[in-house]
TrEMBL record:
Name the record gives this protein: General secretion pathway protein GspN
Domain of life of the source: Bacteria
Biased composition (Low complexity): 42-60
Region span, Disordered: 42-99
Organism: Roseateles asaccharophilus
Signal peptide: 1-20
Length: 168
């Protein structure tokens, strides 16, 4: 312990001892209240008798206008509806993003018998697809090329392309 800790501990002990001592002393002024009169300077009117104070009257009831100030404000009026001509038509449906990315392309066979395959990967699986294959029951492969894969989202017949993205 440092000397500072010892000094602070001693001060705490002295404070607690003084508090306990005051709390155990009998109260000499129990039940009495000291009233202090303000000191007034003597003036020329000092010899005049003090004015009598009137008995207090109850307050008058508050009027509706006075009580209205304490009420919450009324809600603001609703905004007018937009004119029908400014309402935009809903956006055309768009295909959700394909959860695969193209990591490679493979050509099997030669000449007219050659079949181009695209290698697709996702966090859970890797696929090898060719033209006409259906992926996850929602995507049909339309074309495989050196730059990517052309697909059609089957629920809305919306085309989408996946570009070749090399994986390090």
């Amino acid at each position: 312990m440092t000397p500072r800790h010892l000094v602070l501990g001693g001060a705490l002990a002295a404070t607690l001892a003084a508090t306990a001592w005051v709390a155990t002393r009998p109260d000499e002024n129990a039940g009495t209240v000291a009233v202090v009169e303000p000191v007034r300077k003597p003036t020329a009117a000092a010899s005049a008798p003090a004015p009598q104070t009137a008995a207090r009257q109850p307050w008058a009831e508050a009027s509706a206008e006075q009580l209205a100030a304490w009420q919450p404000p009324p809600p603001p009026p609703a905004p007018p509806p937009p004119p029908l001509s400014t309402v935009a038509a809903p956006a055309p449906p768009s295909a959700p993003p394909l959860p695969y990315q193209m990591i490679g392309r493979l050509v099997e066979g030669e000449g007219a018998q050659a079949v181009e395959l695209a290698l697709l990967t996702s966090p859970s699986r890797t696929l090898s697809v060719k033209r006409g294959d259906v992926i996850d029951g929602q995507w049909r492969v339309e074309q495989v090329s050196t730059s990517g894969v052309s697909l059609t989202w089957l629920p809305s017949q919306i085309p989408q392309n996946i570009v070749f993205k090399a994986v390090p």
